[in-house]
């Protein structure tokens, strides 16, 4: 059996004296969509940043992070990117004054530098996934709507042809229809073989497209299971899927 794409165990992260994540263990298999849901401040972004090696200098991680069966805890972020890991952070970090197309081309920069001749081969597939980006290819990224900006951030990540795509709250601040559109696209990415680790507060949308899910609460993984089972779990329904609006 081949190793999972990502396997994290005993991962703890502290910022100074405060431990924001306690002994987390998660697994993402090839071609899977796995989501981590949980409220504000639970440690979701901390988990993703630790996996990517992108914690702020004040953050310290311990535990094991294995990618494709190999421990990578000591690898700098550039090496993780070079091996096919990609994080779309909460702050999307687009180049506002550059066009949509130039932002996408930058997403392939690593492949270009690695000498790949066909480093732009994902441009048309990305435009096919996101026709709105194709229509706006010459528009400055800074003038895009929130939903379009989110599409651009995901599209730019795909230009690097990642094996593991990590998305930090792709639905943040978006209207329900756009959320639906984005999640539909994330779900469609499964066909490309990419493994996706999805962090979300929108539990309903996330579990609908996921194979497996984890619930993170104040630094601890409180629940886990097949996404369909989690969506039926009374506690998940009450806290995350109920009629009540998510806590602000
Ligand atoms: N650089 C930092 N220094 C100190 N504490 C931090 C730092 N970054 C995050 N924290 C704390 O760690 C905890 C987890 O934060 P994190 O950003 O991982 O939560 P989150 O689940 O992503 O929340 P949200 O849904 O609001 O994005 C919070 O209590 C936060 O205040
Ligand atoms: Mg966060």
TrEMBL record:
GO terms of molecular function: ATP binding; ATP hydrolysis activity; branched-chain amino acid transmembrane transporter activity
UniProt keyword terms in alphabetical order: Amino-acid transport, ATP-binding, Cell inner membrane, Cell membrane, Membrane, Nucleotide-binding, Transport
Biological process according to GO: L-amino acid transport
The protein, known as: Amino acid/amide ABC transporter ATP-binding protein 2, HAAT family
Pfam family, one: ABC_tran
Coiled-coil zones: none
Xref: PROSITE patterns: ABC_TRANSPORTER_1, ABC_TRANSPORTER_2
PANTHER family, A to Z: ABC TRANSPORTER ATP-BINDING PROTEIN, HIGH-AFFINITY BRANCHED-CHAIN AMINO ACID TRANSPORT ATP-BINDING PROTEIN LIVF
Gene3D superfamilies linked: P-loop containing nucleotide triphosphate hydrolases
Domain ABC transporter: 6-243
Family label: Belongs to the ABC transporter superfamily.
SUPFAM superfamilies: P-loop containing nucleoside triphosphate hydrolases (SSF52540)
């Amino acid at each position: 059996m081949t190793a999972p794409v990502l396997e994290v165990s005993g991962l703890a992260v502290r910022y100074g004296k405060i431990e924001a994540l306690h002994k987390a263990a998660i697994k993402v298999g090839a071609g899977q969509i796995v989501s981590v849901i949980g409220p504000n401040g639970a440690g979701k972004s901390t988990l993703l940043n630790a996996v990517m090696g992108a914690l702020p200098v004040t953050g310290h991680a311990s535990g094991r992070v294995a990618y494709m069966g190999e421990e990578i805890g000591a690898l700098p972020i550039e090496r993780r990117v070079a091996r096919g890991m990609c994080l779309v952070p909460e702050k999307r970090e687009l180049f506002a004054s550059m066009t949509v197309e130039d932002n996408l081309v930058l997403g392939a920069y690593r492949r270009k530098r690695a000498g790949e001749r066909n480093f732009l081969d994902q441009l048309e597939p990305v435009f096919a996934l996101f026709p709105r980006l194709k229509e706006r290819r010459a528009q400055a990224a800074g003038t895009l709507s929130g939903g379009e900006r989110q599409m651009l951030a995901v599209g730019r990540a795909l230009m690097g042809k990642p094996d593991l795509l990590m998305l930090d709250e792709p639905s943040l601040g978006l209207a329900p229809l756009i959320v639906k559109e984005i999640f539909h696209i994330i779900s469609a990415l499964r066909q490309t073989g990419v493994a996706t680790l999805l962090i979300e507060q929108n539990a309903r949308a996330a579990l609908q497209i996921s194979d497996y899910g984890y619930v993170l609460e104040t630094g601890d993984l409180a629940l886990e299971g097949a996404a369909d089972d989690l969506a039926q779990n009374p506690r998940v329904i009450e806290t995350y899927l109920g009629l009540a609006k998510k806590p602000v």
